[in-house]
What we know:
The protein is α+β, with helices and mostly antiparallel strands. It folds into two domains: 15-118, Aminopeptidase, CATH 3.40.630; 147-306, Gcn5-related N-acetyltransferase (GNAT) (Aminopeptidase), CATH 3.40.630.30. It is built from eight helices and 14 strands. It has helices spanning 33-44, 51-58, 104-117, 129-137, 173-180, 190-201, 242-253, 271-279, and strands spanning 15-18, 23-27, 65-70, 73-84, 87-95, 121-126, 141-153, 164-167, 207-213, 216-225, 231-239, 261-267, 283-293, 304-306. Strands 1, 2, 3, 4, 5, 6, 7, 8, 9, 10, 11, 12, 13 and 14 form a 14-stranded mixed β-sheet that branches. Helix 3 (104-117) links the parallel strand 5 and strand 6 (121-126). Helix 2 (51-58) packs across helix 6 (190-201). It is globular, with a radius of gyration of 20 Å. This is DgyrCDS14103.
Amino acid sequence: xxxESIPTKIENAKVIKSFDDGYNVREMTLEDAETVQNxxxxxxxxxxxxxxxxxxxxxxxxxxxxxGEIDGVTVASAFRTAVGTGIFFGSYYxxxxxxxxxxxxxxxxxxxxxDHVGNNILVxxxxxxxxxxxxxxxxxxxxxxxxxxxxxxxxxxxxxxNITFETITKKHFDDIIxxxxxxxxxxxxxxxRAFLLKWLFDIEGSRxxxxxxxxxxxxxxxxxxxxxxxxxxxxxxxxxxxxIAMGILSELGKxxxxxxxxxxxxxxxxxxxxxxxxxxSYETVxxxxxxxxxxxxxxxxxxxxxxxSLGVLSF
Length: 315
């Protein structure tokens, strides 16, 4: 049964589906962002608390962001939202420990969220073997690469020839979008433009850098802080070459205190970049298996050196 009239913990949150045991799946709201980020911080220790909030502010309502609620208590989360025409991305699947084994997560993810995706392509990143096996059970296929989180120093000394760097301002934005179209999973997707407008300019404590060669953009990247501002996530980091990507990474580290570190989310298939990061003392924290449902979106691109966000837009 679908309804909009059942009371929920969050005022004005539309209930998408109600079950006979009193369990409701409703839309995720801005007020839920902190709750969900706290859940994930308890599992992954370092989470950028801005990511989900920016996504919720960008995507229109009814875009596939869900919370599970029982007796007025939020107990589960997940989203499956369109990141291109015919392509969805799924993440933030979580069930509070004391509410597991009661079907709250599976009903949210495998019924409500799956119905939202329909026959479109769905991309997910499975962070452990049990999740990979679970996804395979439902017909997902493994991509020929993984998303690798690496951690390393924010201060990197590199030499780049004939490359200049500038802090990104709104005067660069249209040109940044033109460049982004060559790197993101689908060119000219309207939500991507709206997302980047907030992502690049509205996140407190972030910094974004664009690289030029002969007056032409050849890459750009952003860092944003985690809680405590000693660890910073890098993403997106898009560039024409390993050298340019490393130059942008070096620029993003300038001005940060000694001891600050970066997290990147790189494609394992980019062997030369992985090798270069290892040479710069970057170490693997964990890997997530990229998986697809309903087809292959052909999302691997060698000019993606760190995805935008493992949590909300892993491209």
